[in-house]
Amino acid sequence: MSSTRASGELRLVSLLPSATEMVCALGLADQLLGITHCCDYPPEIRGKPLVVHSNIPVADLGLREIDRAVSASLGRGESLYHVDEQILHELAPTHILTQDLCQVCAPAGNEVTRALKALPVQPQVLWMSPHSIADIHDNLRELGQATGREAEAERLIAAGNARLHAVAAQVAQATHRPRVFCAEWIDPLFCAGHWTPEIVEIAGGTDVLGRKWADSVRVPWDAVREAAPEVLILMPCGFHSHRAERQAAWLLNQPGRTDLPAVSNDRVFAVEGGYFNRPGPRVVNGTELLAHLLHPEFCNWSGPGDAFLKINRCVAAAGARANAALAVADATPAAINR
Q1: Which of 110-114, 305-309, 323-327 has the highest mean pLDDT?
Q2: Beta strand pairing status for 81-83 and 95-98?
Q3: Which end of the chain is less packed: N or C, by CB atoms within 10 Å?
């Protein structure tokens, strides 16, 4: 594959799943030449060259094991990701889309800088590190400006804002704003940060432990008990709803869980993480979904049926058995190799 490029040709490489979604929303899927191993939406990106791979085998690990592996790697000063410099060189990008917000979510500054040194022609680098919905829209606007899609970006932003305003108007009819706890990780527990508490607010709830426009942090189980959330939302970063559902067993086996209004009132949900963890166009879908979960009497959900799953004790018990089976399956190859 040649590393040369024609003048004016648009060649995009995304090192960030949310950026990949933005590119496709702008109608530039054909100009997107490289993606990461985490990019799984929209469907038309399947089969594109992978420029980024994880250095940690997360598919074979439980949540606590992933957390320990990530902490250990970062403590040793190691990167969590490998950027394939050879493929990047062959793709000869005109633009690289990346972030410097979270070392865990995607390649950050050091990895990107190192990879850029391998390129004979330096591309334009767009850094996307949003904290709020307004920041997400600014990133989309900047991408539109860099790719000649300004008008389309403004249309997407306007349409998204109109939908958010519609949600706000619908939930304004409610006489009560439920207390909500959004878990961005389960074992150990992490609260929601950045734009997610803002989404909860627009959707008619109060994120009792969230950190609006700030980093997500660990929270002790006792803090959740004291906050007494009326709705529990499980949204582990990078997890689809079915995989998030399996993690409910840990949460619903903690001491005092039956005292939580969310548990006693059967309002515990696993959701599609991509609507919340990825700062792209689909955060609007996430807001609409959350409004439906908090105020179903006022807000309908017309999206995919498996975007959320209701958790009850039977489901949690099944999740525990599934996790145990997965643990045995994952351990067997290691035992054989020893």
Answers
A1: 305-309
A2: unpaired
A3: C
Nearest residue to 98 via CA among 17, 178, 167, 15:
15
Cβ atoms within 10 Å of 160's Cβ, excluding its own: 21
Q: Does 162 or 37 have the greater pLDDT score? A: 162
Distance separating alpha carbons of residues 212 and 193, to the nearest angstrom: 6
The whole model's pTM is what? 0.85
CATH classification for the domain delimited by 12-153, as one of 3.40.250.10, 3.40.50.1980, 3.40.50.11440, 3.40.50.720: 3.40.50.1980
Taken as a whole, the chain contains a residue count of 338
Show the tokens assigned to 214.
């700030």
Residue type at position 86:
Q
pLDDT at 247: 85
Nearest to 228 by CA among 197, 249, 257, 269: 257
* Strand-strand pairing, 124-127 and 193-194: unpaired
